[in-house]
């Protein structure tokens, strides 16, 4: 006995694709992280400079 396959019972293949919304969100997260890292580096440099400027060379902190 041979079984026929009709067009309505043929197997279907489903594929999953990522939406562009996820890609945009990921790119935004990366951009935010890079911005935050750059801001952190600028703040650290500023703090380091303030530390150096807070004591005159003639009176270093080890004298306290």
Q: What radius of gyration results from the CA coordinates?
A: 31 Å
* Oligomeric grouping of the chains: single chain
The sequence of SSEs as H and E is H
What is the count of DSSP helices, taking H or I runs of 4+ residues?
A: 1
Mean pLDDT: 79
- Distance from N terminus to C terminus (CA atoms, Å) equals 101 Å
The coarse overall form would be rod-shaped
Helix content: 40-55%
Query: What are the segments in which pLDDT stays under 50 over at least 5 consecutive residues?
Result: none
Please describe the biggest sheet, giving its number of strands, its sense, and whether it closes into a barrel: none
Class based on secondary structure composition and strand pairing = mainly alpha
Proportion of strand residues? under 5%
Task: Tell me the number of strands.
Answer: 0
Textual characterization of the structure:
With 64 residues, the protein is an all-alpha fold. The protein has a domain at 25-50. It is built from one helix and no strands. It is rod-shaped. The termini are far apart.
Describe the protein's topology.
Elements (H helix, E strand, L loop, with lengths): L19 H34 L11
In short:
Helices cover 53% and strands 0% of the residues. The chain is an all-alpha fold and 64 residues long.
Keywords:
single chain; mainly alpha; 64 residues; 0% strand
């Amino acid at each position: 006995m041979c079984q026929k396959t009709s067009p309505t019972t043929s197997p279907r293949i489903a594929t999953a694709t990522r939406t562009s919304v996820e890609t945009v969100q990921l790119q935004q997260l990366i951009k935010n992280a890079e911005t935050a890292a750059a801001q952190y580096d600028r703040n650290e440099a500023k703090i380091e400079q303030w530390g150096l400027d807070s004591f005159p060379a003639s009176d270093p902190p080890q004298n306290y």
